[in-house]
Amino acid sequence: MAHKKAAGAAKNLRDSQPKYRGIKLFGGQRAVAWNIIVRQNGSKYECGANTYLASDFSIHAATDGIVMFKQKNFKRFDGRTYLKTVVYVSTEEPKTEKKAPTKKEAPKTEAKKEEKVEAKEETPKAEKKAPAKKAVAPKKGTTAKKTTATKPAAKKAPAKKKAE
């Protein structure tokens, strides 16, 4: 007879630390010398101009510049060709069309705001009156009745007597 109860064996209680692999600087981004561009396991990406491969297969920038990616055909020892992505750092500035400098619109808007403020100050509130009502002429063939607009006197409710 057993002197201990049977215990289950736990098998899935181990987990490895994350390696944080992947592309760190994408195409078109600026790289400073010695920056890590790609962290990888094996040589999925190849080194191009101005880059070097570290011992853990990570690709670093050798000089300052812009990161670029391109596809390139490689040959295997048996003659087969395959595509691989090559990472390189371009030291030339990318050609972009520069627009002519435009005038800042901020001063114009401020000037308009100032004009509006001045215009508001010039017209005092006392001058603004409601438009006068025009008298409507009676139609022909009808007699005009003069009516006086008097409000009927409001009746006050009798005061309640206080109970003593």
Description:
It is a single chain. Helix content is 10%, strand content 23%. The protein has a domain at 22-90: Beta Barrel (OB fold (Dihydrolipoamide Acetyltransferase, E2P)). By secondary structure, it is of the alpha+beta class. The protein has one helix and eight strands, in the order ββββββββα. A hairpin with a 5-residue loop joins strand 7 and strand 8.
Topology:
Elements: E1 22-23, E2 30-31, E3 36-39, E4 45-47, E5 51-53, E6 59-61, E7 65-75, E8 81-90, H1 106-122
Parallel strand pairs: 4-8
Antiparallel strand pairs: 1-3, 2-7, 3-6, 5-6, 7-8
Looking at this structure, what is the CATH superfamily of one domain?
RNA polymerase II/Efflux pump adaptor protein, barrel-sandwich hybrid domain
Number of strands: 8
What gap, in angstroms, lies between the N and C termini? 99 Å
CATH class of one domain, anyone?
Mainly Beta
The biggest sheet amounts to: 4 strands, antiparallel
Amount of helix: 10-25%
Strand content: 15-25%
On the 0 to 100 scale, the average pLDDT is: 79
Class from secondary-structure proportions: alpha+beta
Features:
164 residues, alpha+beta, OB fold (Dihydrolipoamide Acetyltransferase, E2P), four-stranded mixed beta sheet, 1 helix, 8 strands
Compact summary:
The chain has 164 residues and is an alpha+beta fold. The chain has one helix at residues 106-122, and strands at residues 22-23, 30-31, 36-39, 45-47, 51-53, 59-61, 65-75, 81-90. The protein is built from 1 helix and 8 strands.
